[in-house]
Amino acid sequence: MTLAKMKSLAVLLVLFVVCQSVKLPPNFKKCNRKEPKWKECVFEAALDGWSQLTKPFPELNLPNVDPLLIPEIHIEGSGRVAVSQHFKNTKIFGLSTINANKFEFDFDKKTLTIEGTFPELRMPGEYKLEGRVLLLPIQGEGTGLVTMKNVHITNVMTYEEVKKKGKTYMKFVSSTVKATPSEMYFKLDNLFNGDKSLGDNINQVLNDNWEAVFENLEGAYTELVNKITLNVFNGFTSKVSIEEAFD
Asked: What is the pTM of this model?
């Protein structure tokens, strides 16, 4: 499963690197790497900062992540979910509500590990589908909603250090995400040109077999999440140096 094409991935996520270091505003907590409980401090600071991203902070290159707008996605399915999928104006609600149990830097290995659970992620948007799901034909164009419950996520990111004007910046170069929901629901309106009987049947099949659907689409959506994650974090770390983020 591959993410074949992604157009305009982020009008809100195309974040530009600048050379001048920006100071953290007072509502973002800073931590001192010399203090005994600095890892706990970083964890608390990260959660507090992430929860504030229900609005953008342009001065920090941070977008609004709840909801997060994904202007356009195209995915070519295969196997049991052989569906050409085109989504527009998709919004992801619930990213700011993570129940995190790990947000930890390893400055020797140059990694950042994040682990936690999103209670609910809702993704309304416009869709266009054509193909087969579990051998059944599916075709339609309209509005839809995908809901995922209790999405456990583990994300390990690696970074390089970049020196600019006497400051040190992180540049994240890879992201490995594993996401597992406990439930997944689909509601696709106007399937088969509005044929309610066929549409209701396919929605039911998708909901009854969500685990098989997710398994076949996991690779494509994981690639999308990796791109989003790298853009968000690199936007922030291109503005805020290590010296500014950590006293």
From this structure: 0.84
